[in-house]
Amino acid sequence: MTAVLELRRVSKTHGSGPTAVHALREIDLTVRGGELVAVMGPSGSGKSTLLTIAGTLEEPTSGSVVITGHDPADLSRNDRARLRRQAIGYVFQDFNLLAGLTAVENVALPLELDGTPVKAARAAAMDVLAKLELTDRAARDPDELSGGERQRVAIARAVVGQRRLLLADEPTGALDSLSGETVMRLLRRSADDGVACVVVTHDARMASWADRVVFLRDGRLADQTVPGPGPESLLTPGDGR
Ligand SMILES: Nc1ncnc2c1ncn2[C@@H]1O[C@H](COP(=O)(O)OP(=O)(O)OP(=O)(O)O)[C@@H](O)[C@H]1O
Q1: SS3 label, residue 230
Q2: Of 180, 187, 194, which is closest to residue 158 (Cα–Cα)?
Q3: Which terminus of the chain, N or C, has less C-beta within 10 A?
Q4: Residue 188 lies in a domain
Q5: Is residue 173 part of a domain?
């Protein structure tokens, strides 16, 4: 499969001088369609920064980002916004579902914003919700759903349409382990359908769903492993193996 996301020597520095924070240092990372990559590392190691830069929500201080062959820095504001809407799906820990819109309206929204007629957008949204076994929750408002259901709706919204890249920041963090497994299974299924998925997680069990785990330490890519048969293989990265 071709590369969907390429980070080339990406660095991000906040501020300057002695108080500068080097959130990322010369990160090289390529994620292909069909691949699920987990990003792990201690608090403050740069995981969220990596995700927001990969999602074009923030610009690197140096280095380049290529998404489906485009460097967002070379695109006009409008084209960058289109790339963001059409090619990239985001799942955040706090879901970000809009209150006052039903589940299906939330999922259809990105398509409608992009000009898909309402009826077609709702039909596509219902298809995705059905895949996530949420058909009977489609007409509910977010506050009438459980945490796990809300997270599945957020994933449905992230994958609706022809997204090539799915970025998830601690998508299982607020969930019990059963709901967390469901979310990881969905991300796995998206990857198996050809989407490039990057998921930040603290949880080695969740990372064991990935094809590859990258470890960040102090903004550097410290290690990469392929999950073994059990999650315990991820618990001691970089231990001299
Ligand atoms: N806007 C900002 N201004 C200054 N420093 C920032 C800013 N955003 C992030 N940082 C710093 O950059 C570093 C990396 O932050 P980031 O949020 O990417 O870490 P993380 O690995 O996601 O952490 P956590 O696991 O706690 O969410 C941290 O030291 C953080 O304090």
Answers
A1: coil
A2: 187
A3: C
A4: yes
A5: yes
The Å distance, Cα 217 to ligand 1 centre, comes to 12
How much is the ipTM here?
A: 0.96
Query: HSE-up of 130 (CA within 13 Å, CB side)?
Result: 6
- Under a CB-based contact definition with an 8 Å cutoff, are residues 50 and 7 in contact? yes
Residues with beta carbon inside 6 Å of ligand 1?
A: 14, 21, 23, 41, 43-49
Q: Tell me, yes or no, whether 133 lies in a domain.
A: no
DSSP string, 208-225: TTSSEEEEEETTEEEEEE
pTM: 0.87
pLDDT tens, residue by residue, 8-34: 999 999 998 889 999 999 999 999 999
Q: SS3 for 192?
A: helix
| CB neighbour list of residue 100: distance below 8 Å, 6 or more residues apart | 141
Residue 88's pLDDT is what? Answer: 92
Q: Which two tokens stand for residue 54?
A: 């990969």
Give the CATH number of the domain where residue 208 resides.
3.40.50.300
Which pLDDT belongs to residue 186? 84
Rounded CA-CA distance 233/205 in Å is: 10
Residue type, 102: T
